[in-house]
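PT: before anyone asks, these are the final sequences, not the draft ones from last week. 557 residues across everything. Please model them as a single complex and drop the result in this thread when it's through.
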Amino acid sequence: MMKLFNTILIGITSGSIYSLMAIAIVLVWRSTRVINFAQAGLALASSFVGFEVLTRTGSFWIALPVALLAGAGMSAFIEYFFLRPLLKRSGDESQEIFLPIIATLGLLGVIKAILSFIYGDQNGTISPPVSDKDFIVGANSISMSPMRVLILIVVIVLVSSITWLFQKTSIGLALRASSYSPEISRLAGVRVDLIRTCGWAISGAAGSAAGMLQTANGSGSLSPDSLEFSLLLVFGFVAAVIGGLESLLGAVLGGITLGIFISFVLMYVSGSLVFISAFLILLLVLYVRPQGIIGKKVGRRA
Amino acid sequence: MKNNAALLSVNGLSISFGGLQALKDVYLEIQPHEVVGLIGPNGAGKTTAFNAICGIIKPDKGTLELRGKNQNWPRTSDLSKLGIARTLQGVGLFPDLTVLENVMIGAQKFSRTGIISAGFGTNTRDEKELKDRSMSVLERVYAAGLAHRRADTLSYPDTKRVAIARALVAEPTILMLDEPAGGLGPQDIEWMNSLIRNLTSQMSVLIVEHHMDVIMSVCDRLYVLNFGEVIASGAADVVRRDPAVIAAYLGTGAA
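LR: through. Structure below.
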């Protein structure tokens, strides 16, 4: 019984980090219809920024917001100087679909190469700002530590701010409108290009938060060719697809679902099957419910 | 014919798609506070002309003047700033958004605060002003009661009202209506006519429409397109009796 309970707790914590990554992927997908594979690189680069700030100031609470801003800035930069001209120049619709995929994959390589160039095989460290020792209740240790509580709080704050931004501000309104139809939005006076850059910026911030939390929660070590970040990207992507790729709520539910699922595999089956099981659940969802758990069946207009 | 006080004037507009000449030397002029109709048989090029003015299609040739000043063919994103608003034939509301949100989209140009402060939520006053503007336009088209419904739950005539509200909220000087009466019953058409007539105190209106009743009751002047060319233009009741126009509509001109 205790094991079951702990399995779910672990799943929720790691799932909440996948949710952030999934939100980052969904935001870019909604604003530009691009799957941004460079997201892992952005998260990694901004976590390194966080690491630099952390070593200079010693405060996680300064490092986290700076990393978020760095992620937002880099993401907006990539959209503005790289993707926008690329999409403008691509000729037909099929090019519009595959060019960004190749391009963001290439960018991921470039970002990792730059980080390797700067850091070589030196690793950064982001240690947990609060204790990561599990709470003890009676004779049992439960899989919830001050660090995990902190992660949940940070994720809840970020997800609610993004939701609020989407539902209650004119930027959010413009984001929702231009993701449905950029043409009609332009006609109605929305500055779609600017709004897209904003979507990428918010996405970059969410991705870097995922990176910072994942590092602090995991090994604490940050390496330019980190496997952890590639996994984070894959899990975030799977979570986003489970959630239907369109909605923030879907991304959160997808992240938590995936987190709990992986946690069960880890605790009850085998640690070596984690990666493959993430893909199995992806295939299962695509087969049974391709529109995601809360996606709508109606086709969207790209 | 050429009048320097024209709000908008188009000259020599030509567009071809591949080998097909969609528009040839089309001209068009709108005076302040005037309702101008663009009519013609199906496929005559009416919507293409609309799309050229809106920057959706790039013309091969032709000039555009706004308030007497030569102007590049606009980009779609600049229309709102130039004081032009347009409704679409397919209505084009955002189905997931509420009616009020749909209208607020059209009011974005009045949002003064920058993107940064909007992100941090310091623009609540601005936000409220957009809402108020949008509500008052909804009242004007008798759709205020629908404000909080999702757009995809509306009846077809109601979506037309909301689409017009979204165009009006930008306070355009030129309102372009693409088949405003299409699909409406007689009562709604009557309402639409009187709305359009009332609008002329604030703006000029350019209409593409098939319903001749609507055209005759609201338009001051007409341009008739056939096979991409203007075959007649002038006061509505004169153009209506033009033999070339009658022939085009009855099909003998095509033979």
